[in-house]
Amino acid sequence: MSAQTLAxxxxxxxxxxxxxAPATCAAIRCGMDxxxxxxxxxxxxxxxxxxxxxxxxxxxxxxxxxxxxEPSIRECLSDLDPTETHRIxxxxxxxxxxxxxxxxxxxDSLFNDIGKASGFIFDGNSAIFSNGCVxxxxxxxxxxxxxINNRHPYCLIAxxxxxxxxxxxxxxxEKDRLxxxxxxxxxxxxxxxxxxxxxxxxxxxxxxxxxxxxxxxKETATIDSEDPLRADGMVQAFKGAFSTSGLSMQDxxxxxxxxxxxxxxxKEGDLAVTRTLRDHKGEIDIWHPAxxxxxxxxxxxxxxxGVAEAAARKGYARGKHVLCxxxxxxxxxxxxxxxxxxNGGG
Length: 346
Description:
- The protein is of the alpha/beta class.
- Helices cover 32% and strands 24% of the residues.
- It has a 10-stranded mixed beta sheet, sandwiched between helices. A two-stranded antiparallel sheet has the order 2-3.
- The radius of gyration is 19 Å and the shape is globular.
């Protein structure tokens, strides 16, 4: 895999700050957000703040997830002939099975609902990755296999999630994970759907932006652990991504992460950078889209890839190479290296 790349061909997004990829990326670039009071209250009797997608109707449950992801998929495939989708595996990323408030039977129904709503028929090698944020990186790894080894022309990596349900909010508030009137070290719950269409980087040489490396790790000092954090899992993921890309931390121009406002994720990322940077270099800029769109869980990786691609294509990226890294509560860690042909603007 080290000699291969995946070209980013197109993206689609539905977020609290935009109902398309261009609108979402522009809002994130400008630092906009759409944080508002939700219909849920915290333990202190204050309204919980969240980043809610302004959908046409107040859909709930699986219907909401469908209306978050189906337009993103349609946007992503808009340049293709609809008859081509039967050759495209859909790699669908969903919340972890043990996530508080997760809908029952989600894995069994959402994939089929997407097909019915969109009219698309996807390849038989389609798969579901129910592993939250890191599931998106696992889907990228599977896309490498399907495209490079199995010769599929494309893969569609899509993710959808919402934290704006009673069960999910209650579960995270009980762990002091939400940003509330009584807790400043927490995240803004969000929701959204995002998708990226990828192809063989060797065949789509006209594409300016590619996935060049990927790595995984396992952390024992998780956010719920009392063990001292050394970022061993993230360091392992970084080294795996550097090995498969042929690059090093010294080559990285900036980072995009799943940091969501919790101190743990910022500390972990900084520790991993320090432990893998051999020589001193200037500050490595860090972007965290959750500042605009909230915590979007399983949709994070396609959002991050789409944001990085837009920055490279429009010339405001901080350089040629971007390191993206992600973490799950269960200790799973992942890193992805993206690269463009030309240096970005800044």
